[in-house]
TrEMBL record:
Matches recorded under PANTHER family: BETA-GLUCURONIDASE (PTHR10066:SF67)
Biological process terms in GO annotation: carbohydrate metabolic process; glucuronoside catabolic process
Location of the Glycosyl hydrolases family 2 sugar binding domain: 3-142
GO cellular component, one term: extracellular space
EC number: 3.2.1.31
Protein name (Swiss-Prot/TrEMBL): Beta-glucuronidase
Domain Glycoside hydrolase family 2 catalytic, residue spans: 241-534
Family statement: Belongs to the glycosyl hydrolase 2 family.
Species: Diploscapter pachys
Function according to Swiss-Prot or TrEMBL: Plays an important role in the degradation of dermatan and keratan sulfates.
Length: 540
């Protein structure tokens, strides 16, 4: 958004400040400040007093401000945000101090920077958009209120629920279907029940994504003091060694890796862009996407529920390396916050612990075991995966701990550029090895090639629309063989749309592996993919 390169490239602190009046009539209510996404490190002040600091860019945090607010006059809310990444942040970044470690290569001296100059490079390619990226709320609630609802509901109608209040008071609840008919009622802060004749939530192509509302009432001294409504769905995810099942029917993931990225807004949440993206995903025949490489906005999760789009929800751990130095405790905390935020969404069918960690190191095993155990303990209803990139089936130390294995592969691009004839045999051999060793369902979560929209070359050459299209077609031939052998549980193109990256010799104004441009116009490859996806969706 900025027109200033210094601000765009700034590493360190920036400050946000805003005045806000809370009406005097709200005295007696409890107030919380809630931040949906502050990337990366944020400290919040109210009327000049420091309140809370938070680490990590894409998950919400809140702080109670009831006793610190000025009622009836303006309050100054200040947020200091720092985007510096290091080995102990998630995602990780690395400092490059040009002048501290002089490097001489032949006649070149790579130390031509002023004293103290450095860059901070993330272990990922997407541009590290920083700052307050999503909505900030002032939440007003009664003194005694409902804090949270957790509901686990399966497609035959049984459910387990828990309503948290912080106090022990009376809870009454009812369940409403999507025509607002009451289908169940009960009482108690936790328990289980059975709704007969339930309409399950289905991913698109398999049925309707029916939703229900769990409405809880908090009763104190025979008075209803708070009502909390949570949307949920009745659906079950299970898996065998070959397949994923939703509501006992095989589910094949037809989808995309994406980014929350657009011109001008960067990673700032934009409802119009979200709507366009999900409309295009449906137009393409997709039924699934992965929230590469961080949790996406909460509003998107609600839209996915409504539209029947299945989601692999990923923590912000992209490109982790340096075990055991990597920050295991922070990673676990992020996983807990992700599950806590998104646990009730029927669209979320799986938790992804990380994208392309360097799990060839022995030390990575304990690190990932702690994460897998946490995910299973927090949520026994969903499978857990990790997305592998740099490792292969022979040297990975962690994949046996998982329920489902995801693999990113770039045959014909990062591996054997130009050798399109080898894509097929390489991919089949590679993925069959993963299967043979681990015997779990496998999803290819990334494949593809860059193409500059409008760059046409016949015969094809790298970066042309033709080359991207041909890689995709060759990869699909391999997918079909793997599908016939019951080895593949899903496929996802990298990427849905072109996106901004940091500057690098391999990126020309961003990453161009999108099948849509950054402005969401279709490239040649989009039509190839659409034909395949609509055909696959028909078979589900
Ligand atoms: C990958 C990464 C993704 C990159 C992509 C690429 O394996 O998971 O974040 O954008 O490759 O295009 O290099």
């Amino acid at each position: 958004m900025t027109a200033d390169a210094t601000l765009r490239d700034h590493i360190g602190w920036v400050w946000y400040e805003k005045m806000h009046i809370v009406p005097e009539r709200d005295v007696g209510m409890r107030h919380f400040l809630r931040f949906s996404s502050v990337n990366y490190y944020g400290t919040v002040y109210l009327n000049g007093q420091e309140l809370i600091s938070h680490v990590g860019g894409h998950l919400p945090f809140e702080v109670e401000v009831t006793d610190r607010l000025l009622y009836g006059s303006a309050n100054k809310i200040t947020v200091a945000v720092n985007n510096t990444l290091s080995w102990s942040t998630i995602p990780q970044g690395d400092f490059n101090y040009y002048n501290l470690q002089p490097k001489v290569i032949g006649n070149w001296t790579l130390t031509r920077a002023p004293e103290g100059a450095f860059t901070d490079i993330g272990n990922f390619d997407f541009f590290n958009y920083a700052g307050i990226l999503r909505s900030v709320y002032i939440i007003k609630v009664p003194k005694k209120h409902i804090k949270d609802i957790h509901i686990m509901a399966e497609h035959r109608g049984s459910f387990i629920y828990e309503v948290s209040t912080g106090d022990v008071d009376e809870i009454e609840f009812r369940i409403l279907d999507d025509d607002e008919n009451e289908v169940y009622s009960g009482s108690g802060a936790e328990g289980k029940g059975q709704v007969d004749g339930v309409r399950p939530w289905w991913p698109r192509g398999m049925g309707n994504p029916s939703l229900y509302v769990f409405e809880a009432k908090l009763i104190v001294n025979s008075q209803v003091v708070d009502i909390y409504r949570e949307v949920f769905g009745f659906r079950t995810v299970t898996w065998s060694q070959d397949k994923i099942f939703i509501n006992d029917r095989p589910f094949y993931c037809i989808g995309f890796g994406m980014h929350e990225d657009f011109e001008i807004h960067g990673r700032g949440f934009d409802r119009a862009v979200m709507t366009k993206d999900l409309n295009l995903l449906e137009w393409m025949g997709g039924n699934c996407y992965r929230t590469t490489h961080y949790p996406y906005d909460e509003e998107r999760m609600r839209e996915n529920d409504r539209r029947g789009i299945a989601i692999i929800a990923e923590t912000p751990a992209v490109g982790l390396k340096g075990f055991p130095k990597a920050n295991n405790l922070l990673h676990i905390k992020m996983l807990e916050d992700l599950v806590s935020r998104d646990k009730n969404h029927p669209s979320i069918i799986m938790w992804s612990l990380a994208n392309e960690p360097h799990t060839e190191k022995k030390e990575s095993r304990n690190y990932f075991k702690a994460l897998v155990d946490t995910a299973h303990a927090l949520d026994p209803t969903r499978p857990v995966t990790t997305v592998y990139g740099p490792t292969n089936s022979g040297n990975d130390q962690t994949a046996d701990l998982l329920d489902i294995i995801c693999v990113n592969r770039y045959y014909g691009w990062y591996i054997n550029m130009g050798s399109l004839d080898w894509v097929n045999s390489s991919l089949i051999y590679d993925i069959a090895q993963w299967k043979e060793i681990f015997r779990k369902p496998i999803i290819i979560t990334e494949y593809g090639a860059d193409s500059i929209s409008g760059l046409n070359q016949e015969p094809s050459i790298d970066f042309s629309e033709q080359y991207q299209n041909e890689i995709i077609m060759k990869t699909h031939e391999a997918f079909d063989v793997l599908r016939q052998q019951n080895i593949l549980a899903g496929e996802m193109i990298w990427n849905f749309a072109d996106f901004m990256t940091g500057m690098s010799t391999t990126r020309a104004v961003g990453n161009h592996k999108g099948v849509f441009t950054r402005n969401r116009q279709a490239k040649m490859a989009a039509y190839t993919l659409r034909k395949r996806y609509l055909g696959l969706l028909d078979q589900t």
